[in-house]
Amino acid sequence: MKKFLAAGTALTLFASVLTGCGSSNESVSGSIALAGSTSMNKLCDALSESFMEEYPDINVQVEYTGSTAGLESLAAGSVDIGDASRALTDDEKNNGLVENVVAVDGIALITDTENEVTNLTTEQLADIYTGKITNWSEVGGKDESIVVIGRENGSGTRSAFEELVDVEEQCAYAQELDSTGAVLGKVAATPGAIGYVSLDVVDDTVSKIDLNGVEATEENILAGDYLLSRPFVMATMGEISEQSEAVQTWFEYINSDAGQEVISSLGLILPETK
User: Fold this and answer.
1) How many angstroms from the chain centroid is the CA of residue 123?
2) For residue 208, what are the β-bridge partners?
3) Is 158 left (phi over 0), alpha (psi -120 to 50) or beta?
4) Least buried of 21, 221, 233, 264, by fewest C-beta within 10 Å?
């Protein structure tokens, strides 16, 4: 949780930069290339669509390559923005990447809908993911083997989950999948499976598990009661004010009423900027 809290310290600076940069002139033209987190798929698609309706002369292209890959592309200069569903590392920041938090997301724990377990403690969750607990009967469920599903190396969701649960480089995954949608589908179709996904993608094909008796909701995340939350970052190489006019306009739009409405409509949390 420490990295997430640290990321929050950049929010006020981010908001102040946005209000002072960019152009509200609809004649702005150019292109913007983003790459990174698959967890940010819905957010980026929705923002791109609404943004290009307002700024038809700016073309936005997004690739979903995973958080670390997106940040590497940004560092290499092949994209304008690197999307990451985690806080930036010190090394990434030292290389010139700037962390711009645009939303806050919860990480939901999910199982197949036949699972009887509705709550886990952090210790139980850690023991499941490290292979110490292998049967649902050990945590109050039925006699059924636990199938541990996770994301691939380089995933921002995986990085945030493992750090928050304190199981970094200790997990015993049955399968490591390369997208949020793949985890959702695999857990839904696999008896005994458990996985973690972005809160905004959870649907009725899976069941959601509480953590320490706390449900993953916007209210509980904002109150600091739910452990598994992380920032959605749109990183830039250098400050926003140093970017192209098109990129500055993109961030200005995100901070506008219209952009904030898009973020909220997806069930994501607007970052505190006070």
Assistant:
1) 23
2) 110
3) alpha
4) 264
What whole-number distance in Å separates Cα of residue 164 and Cα of residue 126?
Answer: 10
d(CA 42, CA 80): 19
Task: Tell me how far apart the alpha carbons of residues 24 and 106 are, in angstroms, rounded to a whole number.
Answer: 32
Nearest to 195 by CA among 207, 185, 205, 187: 187
**Per-residue pLDDT tens digits for 216-241:** 998 898 888 999 999 999 999 999 99
Q: Do residues 134 and 146 make contact, with C-beta atoms less than 8 angstroms apart? A: yes
Pairing of the two strands 101-111 and 229-237: antiparallel
Q: How far is the C-alpha of 170 from the C-alpha of 36, rounded, in Å?
A: 25
Chain position carrying tokens 């609809």: 26
- Prediction pTM value: 0.75
Quote the CA–CA distance of 129 and 47 in Å, as a whole number: 34
Q: What's the Rg (C-alpha) of the chain?
A: 19
